[in-house]
Specification:
Elements: E1 12-15, E2 25-27, E3 44-47, E4 52-54, E5 75-84, E6 112-125, E7 132-144, H1 147-165, H2 177-198, H3 208-234, H4 245-258, H5 268-294, H6 296-302, H7 320-325, H8 350-421, H9 427-431
């Protein structure tokens, strides 16, 4: 200290920093041993009343416990503790100028937003010494800007998940349902690797974005497994097993109405009735033919002048070409008497009647065989229609299950996204646009 009047009114003197005594104030949680070497040596300002001011410039790097629970919507509080290394509180006292730090020269950061810088003075007593040791702690409260991570990690994950769920909308006949699910799983695995590279390695807590990726991967995996199940349902009709009534009632009676799916009638009941009717008609036709064979003589006796089917058949020993050549052009009866085999005429001899009966029995056997062949074809076609109806019904069941799973997984994905992302205290600020600073 000096009197300015004795020194020509000199009140302030600037001296080199190494020419005066300086306290050994250090950063206790220092993370860079070379930080003091990088400090800029500035002059010391000394006033006439004994006040000494040293405005030194230095870059500090301190250790900080980072909590990545709400990453990328996290908020970190890092402290910088300053105190003397050798002087106690009786020899060197440390005081704080104000409650908050000076942020007038703060340069904004692109990744973090500085929320607050507050100062706290504490007095620490160690077990070795009875003297107090004052400390000054600067707590830096900063909030991460999540736009980069939302746009490059969260949004692609959500879109990939929604695209994977659209696999339920792909027709089962395309053969790309399972392939699409596996492809989306691989894509999400790549994004998960990018997330792990962006976060500090820690096992204390699972990050929010890691939890989101894990749940979405589980959802896509389960959706792929359900796709395999729906493909099995789609192809189940090929084995001929009918749809159970309880499944038909639930899918067609309840779920189809809820999901607004228009069901088309399969016609399985109609084809079953047709098949049974064809089987019954085939047996009845055979019985009618047998009856007509047994009663042919009676018809000949009762209708002597009536033409039967045999009138249009070739006589015994006549080949097919001769028969067609002797047919009249106008489609009438054959002119020769060999084609006029009337049954029951007065002039018919007993020998001709025996030939006619033999021919009629052979002809009825041929007709019976033709009728059986036709009926068997009808039964086969009806059975094929029934199987096709069963296949179509199982395909409709698979369609209803696909739409139901699409709705369930879509709601689950959106609910999980909302539930996980809004756990963070700062996620709502980002959604509402309050983090623009």
């Amino acid at each position: 200290m000096w009197s300015p009047a004795k020194y020509g009114g000199l009140k302030v003197v600037r001296l080199p920093h190494d020419s005066i005594w300086k306290p050994d104030i250090l950063l206790y949680n220092n993370a860079d041993v070379s930080s003091y070497k990088s400090s800029i040596s500035t002059n010391v300002i000394v006033t006439s009343d004994g006040n000494v001011t040293w405005l030194s410039m230095v870059i500090f790097r301190s250790s900080c416990a980072v909590n990545v629970k709400y990453f990328p919507f996290d908020e970190q509080n890092c402290s910088m503790l300053f105190s003397s290394w050798t002087y106690d509180g009786f020899q060197l006292n440390m005081l704080k100028v104000g409650q908050d730090g000076d942020l007038s020269n703060y340069i904004p950061n692109n990744e973090w937003t500085l929320v607050k810088l507050h100062v706290v003075r504490n007095v620490v007593y160690y077990s070795c010494c009875a003297e107090p040791y004052p400390t000054v702690t600067y707590t830096i409260q900063m909030r991460r800007k999540p736009l980069f991570y939302v746009f490059n990690m969260i949004l692609p994950c959500l879109l990939i998940t929604l695209v994977a769920l659209l696999g339920f909308y792909i027709p089962s006949d395309s053969g790309e349902k399972v392939t699409m699910g596996i492809t989306t799983l691989l894509s999400m695995t790549v994004f998960l690797m990018l997330v792990t590279e962006s976060m500090p390695p820690t096992s204390d807590v699972l990050p929010l974005i890691g939890l989101y990726y894990g749940i979405t991967i589980a959802i896509v995996s389960f959706a792929t497994a359900m796709t395999v199940m729906t493909l099995n349902v789609h192809n189940k009709g090929q084995r001929g097993a009918e749809v159970p009534n309880i499944v038909r009632k639930i899918c067609f009676g309840v779920l189809a109405k809820i999901l607004c799916i228009k069901m088309h009638s399969t016609g399985s009941a109609t084809t079953e009735k047709l098949a049974s009717k064809c089987a019954e008609s085939g047996m009845s036709s055979y019985i009618q033919l047998r009856k007509s064979n047994n009663t042919s003589n009676m018809k000949r006796d009762n209708s002597p002048n009536r033409m039967t089917v045999l009138d249009f058949l070739p006589a015994d020993g006549m080949d097919k070409d001769t028969f067609h050549n002797n047919l009249p052009e106008n489609g009438g009866l054959p002119p020769t008497s060999r084609f006029s085999m009337r049954l029951g005429l007065a002039g018919t001899s007993s020998g001709d009647g025996a030939v006619s009966d033999n021919f009629e029995r052979q002809f009825l056997r041929v007709l019976n065989r033709i009728n059986q062949t036709i009926e068997m074809n009808e039964i086969r076609l009806a059975e094929e229609d029934r199987r096709n109806a069963i296949k179509y019904e199982w395909q409709q069941v698979a369609l209803v299950v696909d739409r139901m799973l699409l709705f369930v997984f879509m709601v689950t994905t959106l609910g999980v996204t909302y539930g996980i992302m809004f756990q963070a205290p700062n996620s709502s600020r980002f959604i509402l646009g309050l983090d623009s600073d």
